[in-house]
Write a structure and sequence with these properties.
The structure is a homodimer of 228-residue chains. Chain A has 228 residues and is mainly α. Chain A has eleven helices and no strands. The first copy, chain A, is elongated, with a radius of gyration of 20 Å. The first copy, chain A, binds a DNA duplex (30 and 30 nucleotides) through helix 3.
DNA sequence: TTTTTGTTTTATAAATTTGTAAGGGTTTTC
DNA sequence: GAAAACCCTTACAAATTTATAAAACAAAAA
């Protein structure tokens, strides 16, 4: 939609014109929609955070809903690319160990992008055309990756057979809630969820609690191996 | 819902008056605030669902925020009472088994009241006076119950020492997300999260995955005992 | 009956919300 | 250089939002 090839003012310090306004709108919309939901945010608020005037939103996007969809698409496509790229780097010899490493990827991923879990929380609680669109377009394809390895684990017998709907919600919630609800964690225990120690601690907790327990024969902890 | 002792128009079909309007407002506010959040719901919408006019809300409640707090207090006090009552009925001989049964209580509880998890999700993602109030007033006291048994398990050595903030978020999220995000589950897998089979299946999944794995020596599954 | 009290509605004010219209400026193109 | 295309702003309309004021209405008290 925008033309990335050239920015107009090459020295670039006047109140920025050009296609980056569109990007700033999307960035503002992402942070606001994620924590307040579609109905909870006004285009005026988004405009203020983006540093532009409200009607400009309607120049770049048909309406509020189109802006919301563009926001989701921008975030989810970035994320699914990054995640796939990281997962592809993993050793795929031992399936069980692969699953654990994949989950560590996932945790570091939701730690970096808490908005991901926030959007799912916002939209997942009520039926709506937006939920339907988000599931069809993004969520279903992403979760299907997990389904493949689940099926393999079941048929090869190294995974406990817990129903997939329960399992996937349980695992993904375990991984993401700690980061998506960082303010709650802060308020409850004074802990900054996004700091490296906490991310590592949560990664360990998820592997220990949620991942190892779905394997019939748990594998040794990284930290144990390192400690001995 | 309306006062049973007397209805003003004795034939009982006039638009109900009396103090139950306050109750209807609270019920409407609960269902709407839970899924759309504080900013996402207007008092006009609440009034429409409650079947009264919008200014009546301001007769019964000082303002929108006071209504929100009254809604939370009504829900959380009901829930914490019910939950405590059920937990008190449990056998408290074997601590590990007690923990498992307590978690089954908790799951059946969040299955009955998905709004509980929804409110926490709504408010937990951004710092606000509302979050602060909710944590101080309700959440902290409720979670302290879990903290007691956690401490006991750690000091007696039958619980793996995973940091409490990670553990409590992980466990509660595992238990509640499946029900709080029922529309998402429905959209993804066509499954009705609130039906009895699914509740039982999730209860099993939580015990199997999230609870047993925090014990150093897991205890036998109910279903295994029954199957053999 | 009359008064009082408590509950609810109509009317309305001030601010905010989404979206459109029309017009400046800047580049780009011819 | 003029025309066209593009990005952005001011001005504004229609609907909605929170909250208040005043009046209607019903039940209880006097």
């Amino acid at each position: 939609m925008n033309t990335p090839e050239m920015s107009p003012g090459e020295s670039g310090f006047s109140i920025e014109r050009g296609p980056d306004a569109r990007e700033r709108i999307l960035a503002a919309a992402e942070s606001l929609f994620a924590v307040r939901g579609f109905e909870g945010v006004s285009t005026t608020q988004i405009a203020k955070v983006a540093g532009i005037t409200q009607p400009l939103i309607h120049y770049h996007f048909k309406n509020k809903e189109a802006l919301w969809k563009a926001t989701i698409s921008r975030l989810f496509s970035k994320l699914s690319q990054e995640f796939s790229a990281e997962v592809k780097m993993l050793n795929h010899k031992d399936d069980r160990r692969y699953l654990v490493e994949m989950m560590r990827c996932y945790v570091s991923f939701v730690a970096r992008y808490p908005q991901y879990g926030q959007f799912i929380m916002r939209e997942g609680v009520q039926e709506s055309p937006r939920l339907q669109w988000m599931v069809e377009e993004w969520l279903k394809p992403m979760l299907d990756q997990f389904h493949d390895i689940y099926e393999k684990g079941i048929s090869e017998g190294w995974m406990k057979d817990i129903p997939f709907p329960q399992l996937i919600i349980l695992i993904t919630a375990s991984a993401s809630q700690f980061f998506s609800m960082a303010p709650l964690v802060k308020e409850l225990y004074g802990v900054d969820a996004s700091c490296p120690e906490q991310v590592l601690a949560h990664s360990d907790a998820v592997v220990e609690v949620a991942v190892n327990s779905i394997l019939r024969e748990p594998i040794a902890r990284q930290s144990e191996a390192a400690a001995v």
